[in-house]
Amino acid sequence: MSISIRQAQPADATTIAELIRELAEGEEEETPVTVAYVIGYLTVPGNGVLLAERGGNTLGLISYSIRPNLYHAADSCLIEELIVHREARGTGVGRALVDDLTRRAMVLECAEISVSTLPDNDAAIQFYRILGFTDEALFLEKHLQ
Description:
Blueprint: E1 4-7, H1 13-26, H2 35-43, E2 47-54, E3 57-69, E4 74-84, H3 93-107, E5 112-115, H4 122-130
Parallel strand pairs: 4-5
Antiparallel strand pairs: 1-2, 2-3, 3-4
Helix pairs in contact: 1-2
């Protein structure tokens, strides 16, 4: 049975929140995400979540934002989270989600698609490099909460 990818809807908020919590647990962290926050996220123009499914079961998600970029004078697509259920890892779900988002970004005429990961996450770095991502910038952040 093949993987299907679809745009998430507010009715998917519980599933999305559960996947975000799974990601945080894998990092031995907690997330304050709630179903209400996910619903709000999905209603912001430019934000989106794609869900990968097989046989009615959600296998993973990719969240993203499309935003204007002054330097490129075109929109940019930022991958925020890529999460694949533990039991579905290594089955092509992550690749299918990134490929689908890349196609959508191209249709929207985005100038680029970017992602950040922790510098010691060698598996993610290798995964994205295999998909054609290259080192372009250093991403810094300052936590405010």
